[in-house]
Amino acid sequence: MRRAAALSVLSAFAFAVAASAAEDEPPPWAYPVNPPAAKPATPPSDTMPKRVPGSDVVLTLAEIRDLSRGVPDWHPGDHPPMPDVVAKGRAGGVLACGYCHLATGLGRPENASLAGLPVDYIVQQVRDFRDGKRKSSVAAMGPPANMVALSKISNDEEVRVAATYFASMKLTPWIRVVESDTVPKTRVTGSMLVADSDEREPIGTRIIEVPEDRARTELRDPRSGFVAYVPPGSIKKGEAYVKTGGGKSAACTICHGADLKGLGPIPALAGRSPSYIVRSLYDLKHGARAGAWSPLMKDAVAPLTIEDMVNIAAYASSRAP
């Protein structure tokens, strides 16, 4: 009898340890990793001209995907003139900043929206990537690894030029946050989640952020945004945590502002990608982000569970930027 009871206790303990370990793993929906490259027969070249709504620009798919050409600029009137490092990059492997972060700085779920962030904050993040103080908790995720590589070959002047450009622009509404019990089934392509079919599945404790219009997103149209599905009730729970600290920590609003639009060099969170916000919180908690300003977040992120991160990100992203 005692042996059975002891085994039961050990079993319960093992289950609790396993559950705790699973809770502490990087959530795969926040860290999309491209599947291993298959080797199919070479597809026929797509030479058809591509267009997006509201633009007179015409590009082929090859031109859009040619990183050496620089940014596919569908809407030149939506942004100031781009500096060379943003529009074209530089010889020696420095890719155009606007290719990944878009000409408007709105970014995509797999990277950061830079529009309206403080210049010094952007500069510091690139420096942290360069100095090995910032990386991803999932080494196989491509975009953060690319930032580490690019930071090492970029010079301080061009980093500040790019930071000044992106900081000069206003973050506009880009992500539609929807509470839902179910979400589209997804797969990873281009380092982001995309709807795989019309089938749906329970959301669980996840945020599923997908393009509103996948075709336009693949053409890198900066007027076609994203929809982020979040668990029912998460926005209200996130609001409570952000404003009070949930009895675990200091309120997020103390540093990030009452409206989450930032204070001084502290970045705004309102209206930005919830996937990115969750990655940032997780990376800060687990030491993948350990740059100059990261210690300020150490105590704040220490008690966070994945559910807390989901709720905080859902609320922050639902706010007007």
Q: How are the SSEs placed, and which strands pair?
A:
Blueprint: H1 2-23, H2 61-65, H3 84-87, H4 97-101, H5 119-130, H6 142-153, H7 156-167, E1 175-179, E2 182-189, E3 192-202, E4 208-211, H8 214-218, E5 226-230, H9 234-244, H10 253-256, H11 274-285, H12 295-301, H13 306-318
Parallel strand pairs: 1-5
Antiparallel strand pairs: 2-3, 4-5
Please supply descriptive tags for the structure shown above:
globular, 2 domains, Cytochrome Bc1 Complex, Chain D, domain 2, 39% helix, 321 residues, 13 helices, two-stranded antiparallel ribbon, alpha+beta
Protein described:
With 321 residues, the protein is an alpha+beta fold. It has 2 domains: 61-167, Cytochrome c-like domain (Cytochrome Bc1 Complex, Chain D, domain 2); 175-318, Cytochrome c-like domain (Cytochrome Bc1 Complex, Chain D, domain 2). Helices cover 39% and strands 10% of the residues. The protein has 13 helices and 5 strands. It has helices at 2-23, 61-65, 84-87, 97-101, 119-130, 142-153, 156-167, 214-218, 234-244, 253-256, 274-285, 295-301, 306-318, and strands spanning 175-179, 182-189, 192-202, 208-211, 226-230. A 3-stranded mixed beta sheet has the order 1-5-4, covered by helices on one side. Strands 2-3 form a two-stranded antiparallel ribbon. Strand 2 and strand 3 (192-202) form a beta hairpin. Helix 5 (119-130) packs across helix 6, helix 9 (234-244) crosses helix 13 (306-318) and helix 11 packs antiparallel against helix 13. The N and C termini lie far apart (62 Å). 36% of the residues are buried.
